[in-house]
Amino acid sequence: MRERYDRIRVEPVTGALGAEIHGVDLAHELDNETYSEISDAFLDHLVLFFRDQKLTPEQHKDFGRRFGALHVHPLTEGMPGHPEIVEVVKEADELHNWGDGWHTDLPFLAEPPMGSILYARDVPPFSGDTHFANMYLAYETLSDTMQGLIGGLKCIFHGKVANYSRFAGMTAIENGGDFSAAHPIVRTHPVTGRRALYLQRTTGRSIEGMSAKESAAILGFLWDHAENPDFSCRFRWRANSIAMWDNRCTQHRVSADYFCSERNFPPMRRHLHRVTVEGDRPY
Ligand SMILES: [Fe+2]
């Protein structure tokens, strides 16, 4: 953990992960020292939150490029003129979001993204919070015996299951490709060297070399274990807020808490922009 920051102020959100970053305007090009402090905070806290940022799409992408080459989503259309930006939209009459189950992004790619920078353009006054969970902690709280048992296993992820066409506000690319990949269930972070659970309940339902029943027993236990609320934090969005997460050692989910008819709230539209940074093959 970095002990001292001179350019930014870092305020942890929970004991598990997450920090609010104060004192930086991301619309301007970051000097090397500020970039280095943000980068260290990112590795220490796994998800960073920024408030009151005014970014054009170009500035949003420039910030992302400080962390690596930008990734273009293979299965949903990008923003017109900005293929590297996914417009994450929940229409007012939808009661679920893109991403409302716990997941890591795009594990069915051979090289899943390193992380994403999600920027709120227009969000409701409440609801649609995003939860993040620390997969280092999920791994480290397993017994030595369980760690040994799963150490050499690989999970097979299938992109088809993601079914992006169910969301009214998003435009799925129908023939974007049939992606699948096998990755280690225990993943080593390429920068910190720490081990983390690498799971996704929706698209990763089988373990290489195991029967469906065996896979279900082991993965079912690990999914439930990883979803312990004590491993998580929760971010309440406001317009111009940013969440930036490390996709290699976290999971996230969006609250689908738009109980309009039951609680008489007005229909609420949610609109965010996501820039994603390319990653490498998990090991
Ligand atoms: Fe996601």
- Could you state the order of secondary-structure elements as H and E? EEHEHEEEEHHEEEEEHEEEHE
Instruction: Write the CATH architecture name.
Output: 4-Layer Sandwich
The proportion of strand residues reads: 25-35%
Structure summary, number of beta strands: 16
Rough shape? globular
CATH secondary-structure class: Alpha Beta
Distance between the termini: 23 Å
Structural category is: alpha+beta
As a whole number of angstroms, the C-alpha radius of gyration is 18 Å
In DSSP terms, counting alpha (H) and pi (I) runs of 4 or more, how many helices?
6
Could you name the ranges where pLDDT drops below 50 across 5 or more consecutive residues?
none
Task: Give a summary of the structure in a few sentences.
The chain is of the alpha+beta class and about 280 residues long. The chain is about 20% helix and about 25% strand. The chain has one domain (about 10-275): Clavaminate synthase-like (Double-stranded beta-helix, 4-Layer Sandwich).
